[in-house]
Amino acid sequence: MKSEKGQSMVETALILPILIMLLFGIVDFGRAFHAYLTLDHAGREAARLASLGKSDTDIRNKVDSSIAGLESTRLRRPVEINKIKVAEGEFNVSITLIYDFDFITPIVNSWTIPIKDTTVMRIEN
Q1: Which of 47, 62, 69, 121 is 20 to 30 Å from 80 by CA-CA measure?
Q2: Residues whose CB is less than 8 angstroms from the CB of residue 48 and which lie 6 or more positions away in sequence, other chains included
Q3: What are the domain boundaries of the chain?
Q4: What is the pTM of this model?
Q5: How does residue 1 score in pLDDT terms, banded at 50, 70 and 90?
Q6: Contact 62/79 with Cβ under 8 angstroms?
């Protein structure tokens, strides 16, 4: 029977990169999900202000204050604020936020994907 010294080291060397990529992927998924939830929250806050008739400046300031935990430089400007006519005398407001998300996983860390969130709310009269 031949010696099996070093077999476990070779097996570890083969499996370790896969495990590390899996770990980084899980972390990136968590970071992307956090970014999406933060954008969703900021969009709801901004749509609420817009439905109350606040100015575009107030709405953009609310977005900036609501994206804590994200890099504000990665939020695409300007924030889209659209009024949509639904029926006679009824309007909705739509807030669209787009955030450029960077991965930390090796190999794909040069990729940037846009995370987009659109919130629609009825304008109160």
Answers
A1: 69
A2: 121
A3: 7-122
A4: 0.83
A5: low
A6: no
